Amino acid sequence: MVSALWGAPLIRICLAYFASGFNTAAVDHEADGSTNNGIFQISSRRWCRNFTPNVPNMCRLYCSDLLNPNLKDTVICAMKITQEPQGLGYWEAWRHHCQGKDLTDWVDGCDF
């Protein structure tokens, strides 16, 4: 069900805005040396390979791949994250700004 929710454009729009301000090249450096990468701010602690050895790299890609304006790898990785038990709750931006909110204002006036 969570991965089905990921298909909703409103969810991706809200998350991208609050995670990175729609910046595909965004990198946030954490105190522990890890980074949050790309438009959805995907963490190097678990999901991508940075320069830190022995990280899980669950998406099987380099963190720099998440900085590409072509969002294919980023969306595939994000979909993988949503299939985990925490689902969209993995993202603090989702929990604080999008979850349980009326997201229709994001596409008001758009023709889908």
TrEMBL record:
It is a single-pass type II membrane protein. GO terms for biological process: fusion of sperm to egg plasma membrane involved in single fertilization. Residues 1-16 form the signal peptide. It is found in: Cytoplasmic vesicle, Secretory vesicle, Acrosome membrane. Keywords: Disulfide bond, Signal. Its main location: membrane. The keyword Signal applies. GO terms for cellular component: acrosomal membrane; sperm flagellum. GO terms for molecular function: lysozyme activity. Residues 59-77 form the Glycosyl hydrolases family 22 (GH22) domain. It comes from the Eukaryota. The keyword Signal applies. Interacts with ASTL. Sperm surface membrane protein that may be involved in sperm-egg plasma membrane adhesion and fusion during fertilization. It could be a potential receptor for the egg oligosaccharide residue N-acetylglucosamine, which is present in the extracellular matrix over the egg plasma membrane. The processed form has no detectable bacteriolytic activity in vitro. Belongs to the glycosyl hydrolase 22 family. This is Sperm acrosome membrane-associated protein 3. It comes from Saimiri boliviensis boliviensis. The gene is SPACA3.
